[in-house]
């Protein structure tokens, strides 16, 4: 929500006009005539929902004794019937209403509040009644943020996140910026959509807990009828503040099913997927079976009615789409409208705990409904769905490799890219084999196990990588003189690793020989050539060989002199020629081994921009027809930024396949990953490459297989 401006300044001594829809604020020092009723104990289990009939109905179906509270009731202080109030602070409060809510908390009532209205300077906050709730909520509001938020992350062990994943996707990400006071604790924080380097980039607090209150910066109260996770989050909050009002264990799963099925219907109504109608029909059938099975449970004895003097009048709503008391129904939230001023629907009669068989049927129906909801993500039948397999991630036995491939195939992956050559080390047995695989060749196991699972194997070759910083293996541990150096004479460090100079003849020969051996297996369907641009670094290479050769060619010393203008461009051109010569030679060797296999070139995000002075002249290489495609290491989790990079490559190198690399360390959920995939598909990308297998074959596998990868895809 955008920040609302405070009322315009007025001459000293005058009272500013109150915001629209809110009652006037009395002048400072004047007596506020608010006839507070005598304190009365709240009914322990009744939940009052202020102005949200849809949420009220959903909570009743979940087994809560929830009642709709009108603004008139709040303004007259008729709140003693409730043990807990749910208040959406985006809705305007009057001065009297805010005072009565504050008094309600002061007399022992509980409060769950969400979102905020206007964010104004402290000197203007007196004109906005909602600010009178800051003290019971134990927080201050400092502004609004509309960008950068993607997830809620609960603090470790927080009971609010019981039964929920560590990261929750939030659709509406505009949020008030809040700070806890001494009496509040941070229960969850916002997490950035694109944390730098994959770090836990936490932002402002998202959920605060106080002794009698819980505050949600995202509007959980309006999201709960449309999100199963938000409903569960709200149910956990109610259980913490008012345990006596806990959800009926027999009805809460059915309420979650209702919310999920409603989402499935909305998605199916607009989906172009040919299976949408069939999948929705199956989900509705399973949901109906779950409801029928649950309704066969013998009804529990009715709960004793609370004191009638303390309860808002209750009637059964008939004919308005709401179920009669005790009935089980699955209707889409929003279809029933208990919006009769001052009148409440009767809460559903409680059910005994459901049997394990009944819960299993409900879970099956939930799974079917979620499968329909995932149709929001398009699925193509011709694309690369690849996963990079660095040597450090490769299992050490053929059995373990088969198990890894099984999980990847179940997620819908159709290609793997094992790192067959990097830093002078290979997977094959011999003097240059990575010592972690002594006695076992992982590439042989991959080539033997992958075809039966419909997975293609591409060899991943890192051209100039010299090994991880601090590593004790690799070519630079035995040949340190081959390292690429910065102008200051230190080893270049980029992307967490050292690099090799392409100008030294011995280094070039060793690289070419090693790649020919590592990539020579005819079972490899293609090659990915990476490590050609030093991760976009410019300050390279100033080793003795490069300096001496350039000085012999031009008479200038690039290390001792500050080259400018034409000489600076000449120095860049000279270094590019060295890299291009090596790339051309490796490409010819690969084509000679297998003329028809596909070869991709991988470039980092800085290299994509043609204005960047990097040593990889990738546009010239693609224009010459050396490669079949370009893999972009976008280093972003923002779909718009990834799509922008893909578009740029497509325009700079038309008629060539574009294969972006998805950085799994920056993405926390499967839905975010599929949003990235969809954004790239819109721009005609030939597929995607995940840079790690872990999330793909574990946390994201089920959703990927039912979403973006729900049908098998042939390689383009």
Reconstruct the topology from this structure:
Layout: E1 46-50, H1 53-61, E2 65-69, H2 71-75, E3 84-88, H3 95-106, E4 110-114, H4 134-137, E5 139-145, E6 149-154, E7 167-169, E8 175-180, E9 185-192, E10 202-209, E11 213-216, H5 220-223, H6 228-241, H7 252-270, H8 276-295, E12 314-315, E13 344-345, H9 356-373, E14 384-389, H10 398-411, E15 415-422, E16 425-426, H11 442-449, E17 456-462, E18 465-468, H12 475-478, E19 497-499, H13 505-518, E20 526-530, H14 544-554, H15 565-593, E21 598-604, H16 605-608, H17 618-623, E22 629-633, H18 639-652, E23 657-662, H19 670-682, E24 687-690, H20 694-697, H21 701-706
Parallel strand pairs: 1-2, 1-3, 3-4, 4-11, 12-13, 14-15, 14-24, 15-17, 17-20, 20-21, 21-22, 22-23, 23-24
Antiparallel strand pairs: 5-8, 6-7, 6-9, 9-10, 10-11, 15-16, 18-19
Notes on the structure:
The protein is α/β, with parallel strands linked by helices and 716 residues long. Among the domains are: 1-8 and 37-247, Class I glutamine amidotransferase (GATase) domain (Rossmann fold), CATH 3.40.50; 379-479 and 494-540 and 583-706, Alpha-Beta Barrel (TIM Barrel), CATH 3.20.20.80. It has 21 helices and 24 strands. It has a 9-stranded mixed β-sheet with strand order 2-1-3-4-11-10-9-6-7, sandwiched between helices. The protein has an 8-stranded parallel beta barrel with strand order 14-15-17-20-21-22-23-24, surrounded by 4 helices. Helix 1 (53-61) links the parallel strand 1 (46-50) and strand 2 (65-69). Helix 10 packs across helix 11 (442-449). The two termini are 43 Å apart. 48% of the residues are buried. The model is unreliable at 1-42 and 299-346 (pLDDT under 50).
């Amino acid at each position: 929500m955008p920040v609302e401006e405070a009322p315009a300044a007025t001459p000293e001594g005058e009272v500013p006009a109150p915001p629209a829809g809110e009652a006037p604020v009395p002048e400072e020092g004047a007596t506020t005539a608010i006839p507070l009723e005598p304190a009365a104990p709240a009914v322990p289990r009744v939940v009052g929902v202020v102005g949200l009939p849809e949420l009220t109905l959903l909570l009743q179906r979940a087994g809560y004794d929830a009642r709709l509270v009108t603004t008139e009731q709040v303004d007259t202080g008729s709140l003693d019937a409730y043990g807990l109030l749910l208040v959406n602070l985006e809705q305007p409060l009057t001065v009297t209403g805010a005072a009565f809510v504050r008094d309600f908390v002061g007399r022992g009532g509980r409060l769950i509040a969400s979102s905020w209205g206007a964010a104004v300077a402290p000197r203007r906050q007196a004109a906005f009644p909602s600010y009178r709730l800051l003290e019971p909520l134990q927080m201050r509001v400092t502004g609004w943020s509309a960008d950068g938020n993607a997830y809620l992350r609960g603090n470790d062990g927080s009971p609010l996140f019981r039964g929920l994943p560590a990261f929750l996707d939030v659709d509406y990400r505009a949020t008030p910026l809040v700070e806890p006071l001494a009496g509040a604790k941070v229960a969850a924080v916002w997490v950035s959509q694109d944390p730098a380097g994959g770090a836990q980039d936490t932002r402002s607090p998202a959920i605060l807990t106080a002794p009698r209150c819980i505050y949600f910066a995202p509007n959980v109260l309006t999201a709960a009828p449309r999100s199963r996770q938000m409903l569960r989050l709200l149910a956990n909050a109610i259980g913490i503040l008012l345990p006596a009002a806990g959800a009926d264990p027999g009805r809460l799963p059915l309420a979650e099913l209702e919310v999920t099925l409603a989402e499935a219907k909305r998605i199916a109504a607009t989906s172009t997927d040919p299976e949408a109608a069939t999948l929705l029909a199956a989900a509705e059938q399973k949901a109906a079976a779950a409801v029928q099975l649950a309704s066969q449970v013998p009804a529990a004895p009715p709960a004793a009615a609370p004191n009638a003097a303390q309860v808002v009048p209750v009637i059964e709503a008939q004919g308005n789409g709401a179920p009669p008391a005790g009935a089980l129904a699955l209707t889409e939230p929003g279809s029933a409208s208990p919006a009769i001023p001052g009148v409440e629907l009767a809460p559903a009669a409680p059910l005994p705990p459901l049997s394990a068989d009944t819960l299993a049927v409900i879970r099956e129906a939930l799974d079917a409904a979620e499968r329909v909801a995932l149709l929001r993500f398009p699925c193509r039948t011709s694309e690369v769905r690849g996963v990079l397999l660095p040597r450090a991630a490769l299992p050490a036995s053929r059995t373990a490799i088969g198990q890894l491939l099984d999980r990847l195939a179940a997620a819908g992956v159709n290609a793997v890219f094992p790192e067959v050559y990097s830093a002078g080390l290979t997977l094959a047995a011999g003097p240059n084999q990575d010592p972690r695989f002594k006695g076992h060749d992982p590439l042989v196991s991959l080539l033997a196990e992958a075809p039966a699972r419909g997975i293609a194997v591409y060899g991943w070759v890192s051209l100039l990588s010299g090994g991880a910083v601090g590593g004790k293996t690799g070519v630079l541990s035995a040949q340190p003189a081959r390292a690429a150096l910065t102008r200051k004479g230190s080893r270049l460090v980029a992307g967490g690793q050292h690099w090799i100079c392409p100008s030294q003849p011995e280094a070039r020969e060793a690289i070419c020989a090693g790649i020919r051996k590592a990539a020579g297996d005819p079972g490899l369907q293609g090659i990915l050539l990476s490590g050609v641009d030093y991760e976009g670094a410019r300050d390279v290479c100033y080793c003795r060989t490069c300096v001496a050769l350039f000085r012999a060619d031009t008479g200038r010393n690039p290390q001792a002199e500050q080259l400018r203008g034409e000489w600076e461009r000449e120095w860049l051109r000279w270094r590019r020629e060295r890299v291009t010569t090596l790339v051309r030679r490796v490409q010819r060797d690969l084509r000679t081994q297998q003329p028809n296999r596909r070869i991709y070139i991988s470039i980092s995000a800085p290299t994509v921009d043609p204005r960047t002075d990097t040593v990889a002249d990738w546009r010239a290489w693609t224009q010459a027809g050396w490669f079949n495609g370009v893999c972009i290491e976008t280093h972003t989790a923002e779909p718009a930024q990834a799509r922008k990079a893909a578009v740029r490559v497509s325009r700079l190198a038309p008629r060539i396949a574009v294969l972006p690399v998805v950085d799994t360390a920056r993405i926390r959920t499967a839905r975010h990953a599929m949003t990235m995939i969809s954004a790239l598909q819109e721009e005609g990308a030939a597929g995607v490459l995940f840079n790690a297998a872990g999330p793909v074959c574990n946390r994201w596998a089920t959703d990927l297989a039912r979403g973006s990868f729900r049908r098998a895809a042939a390689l383009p």
